[in-house]
Amino acid sequence: MQRNSITVNPDKEREVDARIAESIFGLPTQFVKRGDGYLIPEDYYLVQERPDGSGKDFKKLPSYSTDMTDVWSVVERMIQDKWRFQLSYAPQGSGDWKASFVSAENLEGNAADPNFALAICLAASKAVEARQTNDAPETVHNPLAGAPP
Q1: How many CB atoms lie within 10 A of CB 100?
Q2: What is the mean pLDDT of residues 76-92?
């Protein structure tokens, strides 16, 4: 897949990826820094304790916020969890993709971003947060892309 040409902070994208892994899929993540004693590149990882207690196993965290295949697994999980999904594009004006998840209880998660995968991730994250707190719907604009139009 060709990367969207918009410039964003890859560290922030990886933070979104970690938040999705934890909140949507219930997977524990860990940020590994240089100097932590692990022989793996600095990044976020899915982490599991070994059954025998001999340490941890690290698996590369999917790139939900930038990869079409990975983000589609988010959409599938949300649909499996009874969320309705909508994605639209506004070619005039903002040029943003608009993603929305709505539950049977009318809880919503909405987001807009030039990167469709990131818009989906932000909307899914907001939807799950709304369900957890049962707050009123709120639209989130990607803070990485600047102020909303």
Answers
A1: 22
A2: 93
Report the pLDDT value the prediction gives residue 136, as an integer from 0 to 100.
46
Fill in the DSSP letter of residue 4.
P
Tokens of 19: 């938040």
Handedness of CA 91, 80, 71, 109 (dihedral sign): positive
What is the four-CA torsion angle of 114, 78, 31, 13, rounded to 10 degrees? Answer: 0
Domains in the chain, CATH or no CATH each: 10-144 (3.30.2120.10)
Confidence (pTM): 0.79
**Cβ proximity of 45 and 53 under 8 Å:** no
| List of E strands, 1-149 | 29-32, 43-49, 56-60, 84-89, 97-102, 108-113, 139-141
